[in-house]
Amino acid sequence: MKKIVSMLMALVMVLGIGCALAENHGALPPYTFNAGQEDPVLGAVVNYMLTMSGVTVEEGGVLIPTPIIVKTEMNKDETEATVWGNFWLFSYSRNEQNGKILDEKSAAECPGVMKLEKKEDGWTVVSAEFAGDGDDYYEDLKKFANGDEALLKEYMNTTGRDEGSYLPQYQRAAVVNYVADNHLDIEAYQEFGWEPVSVIN
Fold it and tell me: How large is the average pLDDT for residues 119-145?
Protein backbone atom coordinates (compact mmCIF):
# COMPACT_ATOMS: atom_id res chain seq x y z
CA MET A 1 0.00 0.00 0.00
CA LYS A 2 2.79 2.39 0.94
CA LYS A 3 4.53 1.59 -2.34
CA ILE A 4 1.37 2.41 -4.34
CA VAL A 5 0.88 5.70 -2.47
CA SER A 6 4.51 6.62 -3.07
CA MET A 7 4.14 5.87 -6.78
CA LEU A 8 0.97 7.97 -6.98
CA MET A 9 2.66 10.87 -5.18
CA ALA A 10 5.63 10.63 -7.52
CA LEU A 11 3.28 10.67 -10.51
CA VAL A 12 1.46 13.74 -9.15
CA MET A 13 4.78 15.51 -8.65
CA VAL A 14 5.90 14.70 -12.19
CA LEU A 15 2.58 15.84 -13.64
CA GLY A 16 2.69 18.99 -11.53
CA ILE A 17 6.18 19.83 -12.70
CA GLY A 18 5.15 19.10 -16.27
CA CYS A 19 2.21 21.50 -16.03
CA ALA A 20 4.43 24.19 -14.54
CA LEU A 21 6.94 23.79 -17.36
CA ALA A 22 4.19 23.92 -19.96
CA GLU A 23 2.77 27.07 -18.38
CA ASN A 24 6.14 28.78 -18.13
CA HIS A 25 7.26 27.82 -21.62
CA GLY A 26 4.13 28.55 -23.62
CA ALA A 27 4.32 30.56 -26.83
CA LEU A 28 4.11 34.31 -26.35
CA PRO A 29 1.14 36.13 -27.92
CA PRO A 30 1.88 38.43 -30.86
CA TYR A 31 2.45 42.12 -30.14
CA THR A 32 -0.37 44.60 -30.78
CA PHE A 33 -0.30 48.35 -30.20
CA ASN A 34 -3.40 49.18 -28.17
CA ALA A 35 -2.88 52.96 -28.08
CA GLY A 36 -3.25 53.33 -31.86
CA GLN A 37 -6.64 55.04 -31.60
CA GLU A 38 -5.27 57.60 -29.13
CA ASP A 39 -2.22 58.33 -31.30
CA PRO A 40 -2.92 57.15 -34.86
CA VAL A 41 0.37 58.50 -36.25
CA LEU A 42 2.37 56.51 -33.69
CA GLY A 43 0.10 53.54 -34.37
CA ALA A 44 0.99 53.69 -38.07
CA VAL A 45 4.69 53.92 -37.20
CA VAL A 46 4.48 50.86 -34.94
CA ASN A 47 2.53 48.85 -37.52
CA TYR A 48 5.19 49.69 -40.09
CA MET A 49 7.91 48.61 -37.65
CA LEU A 50 6.26 45.20 -37.33
CA THR A 51 7.08 44.66 -41.04
CA MET A 52 10.74 45.73 -40.73
CA SER A 53 13.61 43.26 -40.86
CA GLY A 54 16.66 43.29 -38.61
CA VAL A 55 15.85 40.93 -35.76
CA THR A 56 15.22 37.20 -35.60
CA VAL A 57 12.16 36.02 -33.70
CA GLU A 58 12.46 32.48 -32.35
CA GLU A 59 9.52 30.10 -32.50
CA GLY A 60 7.23 30.98 -29.61
CA GLY A 61 8.90 34.37 -29.20
CA VAL A 62 7.66 37.88 -29.84
CA LEU A 63 8.80 41.04 -31.63
CA ILE A 64 8.21 44.20 -29.59
CA PRO A 65 8.73 47.48 -31.48
CA THR A 66 10.21 50.15 -29.23
CA PRO A 67 10.16 53.51 -31.03
CA ILE A 68 11.83 56.49 -29.39
CA ILE A 69 10.22 59.46 -31.14
CA VAL A 70 12.29 62.64 -30.86
CA LYS A 71 10.26 64.95 -33.11
CA THR A 72 7.00 64.97 -35.07
CA GLU A 73 5.91 67.61 -37.58
CA MET A 74 2.50 67.95 -39.25
CA ASN A 75 1.67 69.97 -42.35
CA LYS A 76 -0.99 72.68 -42.09
CA ASP A 77 -4.00 70.55 -42.95
CA GLU A 78 -2.69 67.61 -40.89
CA THR A 79 -2.68 65.18 -43.80
CA GLU A 80 1.09 64.63 -43.82
CA ALA A 81 3.51 63.99 -40.98
CA THR A 82 7.25 63.58 -40.58
CA VAL A 83 8.53 61.56 -37.63
CA TRP A 84 12.15 61.54 -36.48
CA GLY A 85 13.26 58.86 -34.06
CA ASN A 86 15.14 55.71 -33.29
CA PHE A 87 12.93 52.80 -34.25
CA TRP A 88 14.33 50.02 -32.05
CA LEU A 89 13.26 46.41 -32.56
CA PHE A 90 13.59 43.76 -29.84
CA SER A 91 12.74 40.07 -29.91
CA TYR A 92 12.15 38.09 -26.72
CA SER A 93 11.55 34.48 -25.71
CA ARG A 94 10.71 32.94 -22.36
CA ASN A 95 13.77 31.92 -20.35
CA GLU A 96 14.17 28.13 -20.43
CA GLN A 97 14.85 27.84 -16.68
CA ASN A 98 12.45 30.52 -15.47
CA GLY A 99 9.48 31.12 -17.75
CA LYS A 100 8.62 34.33 -15.88
CA ILE A 101 11.66 36.04 -17.39
CA LEU A 102 11.87 37.19 -21.00
CA ASP A 103 15.27 36.75 -22.59
CA GLU A 104 16.22 39.51 -25.03
CA LYS A 105 17.25 37.43 -28.04
CA SER A 106 17.89 40.06 -30.69
CA ALA A 107 17.90 43.84 -31.07
CA ALA A 108 18.20 46.26 -33.96
CA GLU A 109 18.79 49.99 -33.75
CA CYS A 110 17.16 51.92 -36.61
CA PRO A 111 17.57 55.71 -36.22
CA GLY A 112 15.92 57.52 -39.06
CA VAL A 113 12.99 59.49 -40.37
CA MET A 114 9.55 58.38 -41.57
CA LYS A 115 7.05 60.25 -43.71
CA LEU A 116 3.36 59.50 -43.36
CA GLU A 117 0.17 60.44 -45.17
CA LYS A 118 -3.40 60.42 -43.93
CA LYS A 119 -5.55 58.40 -46.31
CA GLU A 120 -9.21 57.35 -46.22
CA ASP A 121 -8.43 54.33 -44.05
CA GLY A 122 -6.04 56.17 -41.72
CA TRP A 123 -2.36 57.04 -41.49
CA THR A 124 0.21 55.17 -43.58
CA VAL A 125 4.00 55.30 -43.70
CA VAL A 126 4.91 56.24 -47.29
CA SER A 127 8.70 56.40 -46.90
CA ALA A 128 11.33 55.51 -44.33
CA GLU A 129 15.07 56.19 -44.30
CA PHE A 130 17.50 54.85 -41.72
CA ALA A 131 21.12 55.58 -40.83
CA GLY A 132 23.77 53.38 -42.38
CA ASP A 133 26.55 51.57 -40.60
CA GLY A 134 30.10 52.63 -39.83
CA ASP A 135 31.15 56.06 -41.06
CA ASP A 136 27.72 56.67 -42.59
CA TYR A 137 25.95 56.42 -39.23
CA TYR A 138 26.74 59.84 -37.77
CA GLU A 139 26.69 61.55 -41.17
CA ASP A 140 23.20 60.22 -41.80
CA LEU A 141 22.00 61.43 -38.39
CA LYS A 142 23.33 64.90 -39.21
CA LYS A 143 21.53 64.74 -42.55
CA PHE A 144 18.26 63.77 -40.87
CA ALA A 145 18.65 66.62 -38.36
CA ASN A 146 19.28 69.08 -41.23
CA GLY A 147 21.26 71.55 -39.12
CA ASP A 148 19.00 71.26 -36.07
CA GLU A 149 21.58 70.73 -33.30
CA ALA A 150 18.89 70.08 -30.67
CA LEU A 151 17.40 67.33 -32.84
CA LEU A 152 20.84 65.82 -33.44
CA LYS A 153 21.46 65.77 -29.67
CA GLU A 154 18.12 64.04 -29.15
CA TYR A 155 19.11 61.42 -31.71
CA MET A 156 22.33 60.77 -29.81
CA ASN A 157 20.37 60.22 -26.60
CA THR A 158 18.56 57.27 -28.22
CA THR A 159 21.51 55.31 -29.52
CA GLY A 160 22.44 52.98 -26.63
CA ARG A 161 22.17 52.10 -22.97
CA ASP A 162 24.79 54.55 -21.70
CA GLU A 163 23.99 57.01 -18.90
CA GLY A 164 21.59 59.65 -20.20
CA SER A 165 20.17 57.37 -22.88
CA TYR A 166 16.41 57.22 -23.29
CA LEU A 167 16.51 53.57 -24.32
CA PRO A 168 16.27 51.80 -20.92
CA GLN A 169 13.06 53.60 -19.92
CA TYR A 170 11.45 53.11 -23.34
CA GLN A 171 12.39 49.45 -23.49
CA ARG A 172 11.00 48.79 -20.04
CA ALA A 173 7.78 50.69 -20.81
CA ALA A 174 7.27 48.67 -24.00
CA VAL A 175 7.68 45.36 -22.16
CA VAL A 176 5.51 46.50 -19.23
CA ASN A 177 2.69 47.45 -21.63
CA TYR A 178 3.00 44.19 -23.57
CA VAL A 179 2.85 42.12 -20.38
CA ALA A 180 -0.13 44.08 -19.03
CA ASP A 181 -2.05 44.05 -22.33
CA ASN A 182 -1.73 40.27 -22.56
CA HIS A 183 -2.19 39.48 -18.84
CA LEU A 184 1.07 37.53 -18.72
CA ASP A 185 2.91 36.23 -15.66
CA ILE A 186 6.19 37.77 -16.82
CA GLU A 187 8.14 39.42 -13.99
CA ALA A 188 11.30 40.65 -15.76
CA TYR A 189 13.28 40.76 -18.98
CA GLN A 190 17.00 40.24 -19.38
CA GLU A 191 19.72 41.04 -21.86
CA PHE A 192 22.44 38.36 -21.99
CA GLY A 193 25.15 39.08 -19.43
CA TRP A 194 23.10 41.67 -17.54
CA GLU A 195 20.84 41.56 -14.49
CA PRO A 196 17.09 41.09 -15.07
CA VAL A 197 14.98 44.25 -15.27
CA SER A 198 11.75 44.02 -13.29
CA VAL A 199 8.50 44.83 -15.08
CA ILE A 200 6.40 44.66 -11.92
CA ASN A 201 5.06 48.11 -11.05
Answer: 95
